[in-house]
Specification:
This is Peptidase M56 domain-containing protein. With 456 residues, this protein is α+β, with helices and mostly antiparallel strands. The protein has 15 helices and 14 strands. Helix 1 crosses helix 6 and helix 6 crosses helix 8.
Amino acid sequence: MAPTLLYLLKANGVLVLFAAAYYGLLRRLTFFGLNRAYLVLALLFAAVYPALPMPALLPAEALAPVPAAWQQAAGVRASVGTLAPSAVIDWQLVGLVVYAAGAALFVLRLLGQLLSLAWLRRTTRPATVLGQPVRLLARPAAPFSFGRAIYLSQELLTNMDELVVVLRHEQAHVRQWHTLDVLLAQVALALAWANPAAWLLRRAVLDNLEYLADRAALQTGLDRRAYQYSLLHQQPGAVPAPALAFHFSFLTLKNRILMLNQPASTTRQLGRYLLAAPLVMALALGYSGARAQAVTAVVQPATFHPNIPANALYYLDGQPSSEQAVRELPASTIYNMDIIQDEPAKIKQVFGNTTATSAIIVTTQANANLPAVLALVDKADLGSGYSHTPVQVNVLVPKALAYITQHYPDARLSGEVVEAKRKTTGAVKYHVQLVSGKRPFYVFFTPQGDFISEHR
């Protein structure tokens, strides 16, 4: 699985767990400060968790470390599925492109909202109301706050009772830096737009910040009943506040009044926080034992090819190595693995005088471009030294087709032809898959139709 896709799956999976724990255990508690910390932790942890060097909720495949698994070339034992994946649509790439396009649109939307607020600020004028610095709007609009600024319309200044309530509420948003939470939730939503949990967590962040502001306003000495009546008397006809801004809104009015009358949560209910965040983090970071072994699994050559003889040669990053060293490599570090099997003459040609009939050549990601690696790949004509591209059968010249007809009269073309281009020189050869009975095999030709070799 592509690393980026794996990252997204892990991050979105953790968001689902955090959202489920919040709505199942914490949503109705009146510990609004703890809820705020929990929600911020959820968004931040989901962003960094996939990059943590420990067992993952969705671990990478332990026994598929080779990006172009068992690439076919001269000297590598062929199999039916070796080249087939390159001929089909890469749905992982398609999914990533669609996901990235959606995220880009949401990021642009967020930037547009910020620019809209910046433009609106330029149309306001500064003033002081009841000792509080504010910015007065040039047109009628609902009161709101963003960052360190509170925005009021001229009409609101004529209603002193309502003005006091509005100012106390918006002052709480400003004083407690609630805008930072909103921006974090909006960024998380933009990057995880396809995940319903991201939408639920954003709604939870906004609601909880309103609860915090309501409680802070009441703690300044406002009457609880009068405060609720003031919320109910807010006029819905005013122009709505800009997106991202805190404002008196009917969207969450029902829940706000419900929480204003909610009995204070008991200290015993604090235990729910010991279940929520730690449980989610334990699920994400745990999975030790068998899961940890899967993530830290090492390459097992015999697992890939059970017929590899005991006297096989092992090369690591272009240098002689041992079976033990290859087995102990973490799967995540492997870039490529090539096998030369049952070709003693070629092994002697490449590696010198030896009785070995097979060789395993492993390259790590960190050393894929070392001169020694590239030299060995070219000398042994390994599959990893080529880039492979599916092409149409009609690229074969008549000379190659005549050779196939003459030497393989009982075989048929499978329709699979792959152009192999050497990475260092650009030299091209073609892999042609033939099928005799039910058994496929490969024949290699130059672009001029000259026979190179066959591999069964």
